[in-house]
Write a structure and sequence with these properties.
Elements (H helix, E strand, L loop, with lengths): L1 E6 L8 E7 L2 E7 L12 H4 L7 H7 L5 E2 L8 E2 L2 H19 L4 E5 L5 H15 L4 E3 L6 H10 L17 E5 L3 H4 L1 H13 L4 E5 L12 E3 L6 H15 L4 H7 E2 L1 H9 L3 H8 L3 H13 L3 E5 L1 H4 L4 H15 L8 E4 L6 H6 L6 E2 L3 E2 L3 H11 L12 H9 L5 E5 L3 H4 L3 H10 L2 E6 L12 E4 L8 E4 L4 E5 L12 H15 L18 H14 L12 H7 L2 E2 L26 E2 L18 E6 L26 E3 L1 H6 L7 E5 L4 E8 L7 E5 L7 E4 L5 E2 L22 E7 L4 E10 H12 L7 E7 L13 E10 L5 H10 L8 E5 L4 E7 L9 E7 L5 H9 L28 E3 L4 E2 H8 L9 H12 L9 H16 L3
Parallel strand pairs: 6-7, 6-16, 8-9, 8-12, 9-10, 11-22, 12-13, 16-17, 17-18, 23-27, 24-26
Antiparallel strand pairs: 1-2, 2-3, 4-5, 4-18, 14-15, 19-20, 20-21, 23-30, 24-27, 25-26, 25-30, 28-29, 28-32, 31-33, 31-36, 32-33, 34-35, 35-36, 37-38
């Protein structure tokens, strides 16, 4: 076995991993104890990375060969790399020649490596001559970028992870770090345990797992963050809690802000935000008077039509109180993606240039042109993400190159995005996974390497640069993203007018090897000389020998800088930070009589983005098995809805059908659904037969005027009963060698129903642990106004192996009902259900699903298996949802332990320790600990209640 140190490809925490491999295959993964981001810890997603890289997953989900479509709607066919790259170069050159460089666009990803980002940026701005290059980081971090630049002078988080150990007050704003940044949250739990007097404030419309650790929870109304922060500043000024000396010596612009917040009285702010006056005053006091206050914030602030104002208003509080530039104090934006920071560093956004230079600055454009050896860099602003797809929908952009991202799932207002992809004359998709929705729109598909195969660097949320190293060779014909870009760029250089001053290639890097990647990084390093992120004192040899390093690290420095602005000097012309006159404005769209509810979207604990990787593992669906819409029970009661009912959720842009479930963590008037549920997982057909998209069919593409970040967090929706009486449940355990392929084939049938969802699932003792490579679970749920055709049901049965002669059957064509079941063969143990289809009447799901998923003996039930009764036979008891994914501990098992007569009645920590001793839940990655604590408190209430 070989071990290779690399970096996790998920969130911005940037955890180090050690990849185990043998025979060209990844066989295991564990946290790197020497990596300063995680010290060996991994979350549920990171700890299962090796299971997403098995040979079975690779063969069934990966894009392994270059492919080309003769015409849209036709299946793609394999082509050669030479043919594919020639085609890309010819088509892009043709569009540029006929319509100009701004007729093409590049949409790339925060999951690319810094080297990939750099050459994409150079291709667009240096060779093609367009600034139409943007990234999905626009959807998550651009408001943080704009907020930092407007206030502190540079896009640089001034803090580090170690600050959680020095803060006396932690303020969470719009961040569910417990799920979105779980390893960092483990450090926060450790810090709170070590220093119980540390106060934690959580401001969020939804009571998330992060709020479980809070001393003060602020359930503010969606979009009212600026009013909250201005109201807090009003209180600070009234009570004398600001720092006049810091304001006078290190800032400018405070008088204008003072006038602004004069009218934001605590009473008005509390009423606007939907919190009590006491909560507002306490939040202001804790923030201002604590020895050191650290704020942590993410998409709740960023994904808004006033995202920059929200970021700036929070940073205003740090400047007004002097809570910056020392251990434990400062505004810390938590990066969403693994290398969104690296992309910002190389100018991978439509308004940026290399090394945090501004496109609008003529001097910065001249510096980059000199670095690259080109006459100029185009000055016309490029199209940002929303603008780019609108331009393609309008016919202005005629060729799109999309890399390592899935806009047909992740962008807001999916109707516009899909119209853009349909209308665009030429679409290139450079991707590792063939199963993403965007691949269906591609004229050319280019296979890329992914985690475990890539080489280069990434930068995490605390400005720490880590190496990414390949553990195994690339499968099939997949190539590194940067190498593909360089190869196309060289072809374009022969087809476009020469851009370099001396006639040499802009892309003189060796292809497909470490030397090429390092040469690109060294060029990027030189571009940072003298800039705020100067890394001229760093090289790959140091990263290899000394481990990850933080920037800045200029030439001559022995190590990177952990905290910025400790000297009180900021990267502005006069060295002083700027207060921003942040004005509260309602969200771009507010509920009304037609759309009376707020829709909020967010992450789940065990899924990542569009699930192209995490969605290959049934065990990662244990905690949240299927898509759903969460709704407050009071709102459900008004609509006469019960848990599991199908509802039609509609906005001004589209509609989607989902099961609804009650959730008291929401306040009335709000609903929530996870951002991960795209058309690959949930869909169906609308009343006119058009395919329904995922959750982003509903979301709003209105964006912040400063950051151009869209308002994914706030959309007004209507929720009504879907009234689809004919239902279907089909599920099976299948050989892992074919399960994902069958999952994809089942998903291709979802548009034949008014509602459908198709997901993998884990089965106890069969699809977990050592047996994971042998069997996997697949589930299809659907509903329709009337019975679907027998032919469609036959096709589904055949895919699940239910067309075998030994299957048991019942059919009533007149009532549109059918049931089919198949017991396991000898390889899986006699007498257990291998596959089932319930059509027209799915009441028996409540116990039949348990038999399949938990692999309980079923043979003794005989003909009961074909009955439609919802009453479970004696001995059939569901395990319930999985709470601890790492150790496969179910909700039912936890409830049983908590409810036993001899369960200890000590402190919460003592009871948690006993529970962990009994079941080991929460002792691996710890992601489930907040939920375990919530269950402990709920059981306490139950015990205390009178009989």
């Amino acid at each position: 076995m070989t071990e290779t140190k690399s970096t996790c490809p998920y969130c911005g925490v940037g955890c180090g991993v050690i990849i185990e491999s043998a025979g060209g295959q990844i066989t295991g993964v564990r946290g790197d104890p020497a990596h300063p981001a995680n010290f060996g810890r991994l979350c549920t997603k990171g700890s299962t990375l090796h299971l997403t890289a098995t040979a079975e997953v690779t063969l069934q989900t990966r894009l392994l060969q270059p492919m080309r479509r003769v015409a849209r709607g036709m299946p793609p066919t394999i082509t050669t790399w030479e043919g594919a790259l020639d085609d890309v170069a010819e088509r892009f050159a043709s569009v540029i020649d006929q319509h100009g460089p701004d007729a093409v666009g590049f949409y790339v990803s925060g999951q690319l490596l810094t080297e990939d980002y750099y050459v994409f940026n150079k291709l667009a701005k240096g060779l093609v001559g367009t600034n139409n290059i943007d990234t999905n980081s626009r959807l998550c971090m651009s408001s943080a970028v704009a907020g930092y630049k407007k206030t502190l002078g540079a896009d640089a988080p001034p803090t580090c992870y170690d600050d959680v150990n020095h803060a006396d007050c932690l303020f969470f704003g719009g961040s569910n770090a417990a799920w979105a940044h779980p390893v960092l949250f483990r450090r926060i739990e450790d810090a709170k345990r070590a220093r119980p007097d540390m106060k934690i404030i959580v401001a969020d419309p939804r009571r998330t797992d992060t709020a479980e650790i809070a001393d003060l929870y602020l359930p503010l109304r969606p979009g009212t963050d600026v009013m909250l922060f201005n109201g807090m500043l009003h209180v600070m000024l009234r009570e004398g809690w600001t720092n006049p000396r810091f304001i006078a010596e290190h800032t400018r612009g405070f008088e204008a802000l003072r006038e602004r917040v004069r009218d934001c009285t605590p009473e008005q702010a509390a009423a606007t935000c939907g919190i009590t006056l006491e909560q507002l005053v306490r939040a202001a006091r804790l923030f201002a008077t604590s020895r050191a206050t650290l704020s942590l914030y993410c998409q709740g602030l960023n994904q808004s039509s006033s995202g920059t104002a929200k970021n700036a208003a929070l940073i205003n509080l740090h400047l007004a109180t002097g809570q910056i530039g020392r251990p434990g104090a400062g505004p810390f934006s938590l990066t969403g993606q693994p290398n969104a920071m690296g992309g910002r560093e190389v100018g991978g956004l439509a308004n940026l240039l290399s090394a945090h230079r501004d496109l609008a600055n003529a001097g910065h454009r001249a510096e980059v042109a000199a670095l690259w050896g080109v006459p100029s860099v185009p000055e016309r602003p490029g199209k940002t993400a929303v603008e780019m797809f609108q331009a393609a929908a309008d016919g202005e952009i005629r060729a799109l190159w999309i890399a390592c991202t899935n806009p047909a799932q992740s962008m807001p207002d999916q109707a516009t995005v899909r119209r853009a992809l349909d209308r665009c004359e030429f679409v290139v998709v450079q991707e590792a996974f063939s199963t993403t929705a965007t691949c269906a729109f591609a004229d050319v598909l280019l296979p890329a390497t992914t985690w475990g195969e890539k080489i280069g660097t990434v930068t995490n949320s605390e400005r720490r640069i880590s190496r990414v190293r390949p553990a195994v060779p690339a499968p099939g014909a997949a190539r590194h993203d940067w190498s593909v870009v360089v190869d196309v760029a060289r072809r374009l250089e022969t087809r476009l007018p020469r851009r370099t001053n001396d006639g040499r290639s802009l892309f003189p890097y060796a292809l497909d090897n470490a030397a090429g990647a390092e040469a690109i990084w060294l060029e990027h390093r030189e571009s940072t000389r003298g800039r705020d992120l100067d890394i001229t004192g760093l090289d790959w040899a140091q990263l290899d020998a000394q481990g990850p390093q933080q920037w800045p690290m200029p030439e001559g420095a022995l190590e990177g800088c952990s905290r910025l602005y400790e000297d009180g000097i900021f990267p502005t012309p006069d060295g002083k930070a700027r207060f921003v006159d942040a004005v509260y404005a309602p969200t771009a769209e507010t509920p009304d009589a037609e759309h009376p509810l707020w829709l909020n979207t967010g992450r789940l604990r065990d899924q990542w983005h569009g699930t192209s990787r995490t969605g290959t593992l049934g065990r990662l669906f244990g905690h949240v098995p299927e898509p759903a819409l969460q709704m407050h029970p009071q709102d459900m009661g008004k609509r006469q809805l019960s848990d599991g009912d199908l509802v039609r959720v509609s906005s001004r842009r589209g509609a989607i059908v989902l099961p609804v479930e009650g959730c008291a963590d929401l306040t009335p008037g709000q609903v929530f659904s996870a951002m991960h549920w795209g058309s690959e997982i949930v869909g169906g057909q609308g009343p006119e037969g058009a395919a329904l998209g995922g959750v982003n069919a509903l979301t709003n593409n209105a964006f912040c005027p400063d950051s151009k970040q869209p308002e994914l967090k706030h959309a007004a929706v209507q929720v009504a009963a879907a009234r689809l009486p004919w239902t279907l449940l089909a599920m099976a355990l299948l050989p892992s060698s074919s399960a994902l392929q069958i999952l994809h084939l089942l998903r291709s049938k979802m548009t034949q129903f008014q509602f459908a969802t198709c997901v993998p699932f884990a089965a106890d003792g069969v699809a977990l642990g050592a047996s994971d490579a042998a069997w996997s679970g697949v589930l299809l749920r659907a509903a329709h106004r009337e019975p679907v055709t027998s032919r469609l049901l036959d096709e589904i049965e055949a895919l699940l192996g239910l067309d075998a002669p030994e299957s048991m059957r019942y059919a009533d064509a007149g009532r549109g009902q059918r049931r089919a079941l198949r017991l396991n063969d000898s390889k899986m143990g006699d007498g257990r259900l291998r596959a089932v289809l319930l059509a027209g009447d799915t009441r028996a799901e409540s116990w039949i699903r348990t038999l399949v998923q938990d692999q309980l003996p079923a043979q003794a039930f005989g003909r009961q298996l074909l009955r439609s009764s919802s009453r479970a036979p004696s001995g059939v008891s569901a395990r319930g949802k999985v709470v601890c994914n790492c150790l496969d501990v179910s909700e039912t098992a936890i409830v049983n332990v908590l409810g036993r007569a001899d369960a200890p009645r000590g402190s919460e920590d003592e009871r948690l320790a006993d529970l962990q001793c009994q079941l080991r839940c929460g002792t691996s990655c710890g992601s489930c600990v907040p939920e375990l604590r919530r269950m402990l408190r709920a059981s306490e209430v139950t015990v205390a209640a009178p009989s």
